[in-house]
From TrEMBL:
Chief subcellular location: cytoplasm
Residues forming the catalytic site: H55
Protein name as catalogued: 3-hydroxyacyl-[acyl-carrier-protein] dehydratase FabZ
Keywords: Cytoplasm, Lipid A biosynthesis, Lipid biosynthesis, Lipid metabolism, Lyase
A single MF term (Gene Ontology): (3R)-hydroxyacyl-[acyl-carrier-protein] dehydratase activity
Length: 158
């Protein structure tokens, strides 16, 4: 795929790029990808999310750590597409850091979290991204994420 080619991904294709499954798969659709550059994806937030049972029953709010995880999963899809590979049981994406994280507004049931992730650089196996998640055009969370892709140690032992 060339860097100028754009495409969307549905949930079946997303599951080919991410090992996550319910309840931790936090990307519902990829709206747009510029391989090697940027990606836009969505997470539809519903009242049926398991975390709302405890966070908080009287005022449901999506935990900030899960919004960051949704952005990291979006970044992982972009990385695998950029490398033109699909992960297998030997691939693990590790979230290794976040800088300048800021939470700007709460996210709750009925919201659609739109994640925009841009590759800033790749150096020595560490990918750095600028990531923003918004609802209705208003930033909910932003930060610079760092991830690495490694071989699964348990798979390598077998």
């Amino acid at each position: 795929m060339t860097t100028t080619e754009k495409r969307t991904l549905g949930i079946t294709e997303i599951k080919e790029y991410l090992p996550h499954r319910y309840p931790l798969l936090l990307v519902d659709r990829v709206l747009d990808v510029e391989v090697g550059k940027r990606i836009t994806a969505i997470k539809n937030v519903t009242v049926n999310e398991e975390f709302f049972n405890g966070h908080f029953p009287h005022q449901p709010v999506m935990p900030g750590v899960l919004m960051i995880e949704a952005m990291a999963q979006t970044a992982a899809i972009l990385s695998f597409m950029t490398m033109d590979v699909k992960p297998d049981e030997n691939s693990v994406v590790y979230f290794v850091g976040i800088d300048n994280a800021r939470f700007k507004r709460p996210v709750g049931p009925g919201d659609q979290l739109v994640m925009d992730v841009e590759i800033l650089r790749v150096s020595r196996g560490i990918w750095k991204y600028k990531a923003t998640a918004s609802v209705d055009g208003k930033v909910a969370v932003e930060g610079e994420l760092m991830c690495t892709i490694r071989a699964n140690e348990k798979a390598a032992e077998q």
